[in-house]
Amino acid sequence: MGNIAYREVGKSELDVIQPLWESLNAMHETCSPYFADRFKRYSFAERKRELLDHAHGGSLLMLVARDMKQDSDIGYCVSTFLGSTGKIDSLFVDGRCRGCGIGHELMVRSLEWLNGRGAKDIVVDVVAGNESAWNFYARYGFAPHRTCLLHRGSDGCGKSEQERTRP
């Protein structure tokens, strides 16, 4: 692996992670046993809006890992802090670069940032089908806390797509 540089990117530069996020989303589409169609429709513009909404009234840290030898971004981590809760909102390392310590460095820096703000709890969501990520997060003290079941076609409020679009 080449020389890796880590940089903090501001909210206004969130678009720099779009290609990597799209790779993460495609991975979720492939591994998700129930919601592949949702990931197929999920756009970066929508995810960007969600991240900015989540950080509204709080703070956001976005770290990007760049392979200086290849002159390309190879990983990122977006974390938010609101109230007393920190969240690892999105973390991805290019598959060709996994196992080289990049994810570790992104996590350590993100956890230091969240702990420095006084986070009492730090959460991370893992997509069903990507349970292999649990081992990675366990190294940093994360453990399964609860399982959220979602009805396919539901908007999270119990309404199906058909019910939401009926006149």
From TrEMBL:
Domain of life from the UniProt record: Bacteria
Gene Ontology MF annotations: acyltransferase activity, transferring groups other than amino-acyl groups
Residue span, N-acetyltransferase domain: 12-167
Pfam families to which the protein is assigned, alphabetical: Acetyltransf_1
CDD domains registered for this protein in UniProt: NAT_SF
Keywords for this protein: Acyltransferase, Transferase
Name of protein: GNAT family N-acetyltransferase
Source species: Pseudodesulfovibrio senegalensis
Upper lineage: Bacteria, Pseudomonadati, Thermodesulfobacteriota, Desulfovibrionia, Desulfovibrionales
